[in-house]
Amino acid sequence: MKLFFALIAVFVLAGCTTYHVPHPIIISNAEVCKATDEMEIASLFDRWNQSLLTGEPKKVVANYAERSILLPTVSNKPRLTPAEKEDYFNHFLEKGPSGKIDLRQIEIGCNTAVDAGLYTFTFEETGEVVSGRYTYTYQWDGRNWLITSHHSSAMPEN
Fold first, then answer.
1. What are the extents of the domains in the chain?
2. Fewer Cβ in 10 A, N or C end of the chain?
3. Does pLDDT of 124 surpass 90?
4. Is domain 38-154 given the CATH code 3.20.20.140 in the classification?
5. How far apart are the first and last CA of the chain?
6. Long-range contacts of range 110-115, CB-CB < 8 Å, 24 or more positions apart?
């Protein structure tokens, strides 16, 4: 009887060692989050503002993700495509805008960030100064932080 149980044990253990899982088992699809901080996210406005100073709409649009929305202050039309954004910036850049952040709050998530607050634009062409509210949402695409939504509106008291 002991021999019988010993043989069963050998066969069971042998079976365990030859068991083969045909495909890897995925326990989790955990997303790897880009390490960042408020200073890096704040610098994204500076990058965008520097692209304005080039006067080249394509350079400004390069800050936006392919799938993104621009809700600008001086246009009633939401800009969804790169061509629509470029059209908007063609006209906006004619005035020589330069922006400055007056107040901001930054929230950081996993591969996303929000920068919202108040900013002021000075237009070189006219000397006009315009204050507004803004919200930028960003997403890490594996190489760059890109704008996924940009909302800008004039201050209601103006």
1. 38-154
2. N
3. yes
4. no
5. 96
6. 110/31, 110/33, 111/31, 111/33, 111/34, 111/139, 111/140, 112/137, 112/138, 112/139, 112/140, 112/148, 113/36, 113/41, 113/44, 113/137, 113/138, 113/145, 114/138, 115/41, 115/42, 115/44, 115/45
pTM across the whole model: 0.79
Q: How far apart, in whole angstroms, are the C-alpha atoms of residue 55 and residue 96?
A: 7
Per-residue pLDDT reduced to its tens digit, 9-40:
444 344 444 434 344 333 346 779 999 999 99
Average pLDDT over residues 111-138: 97
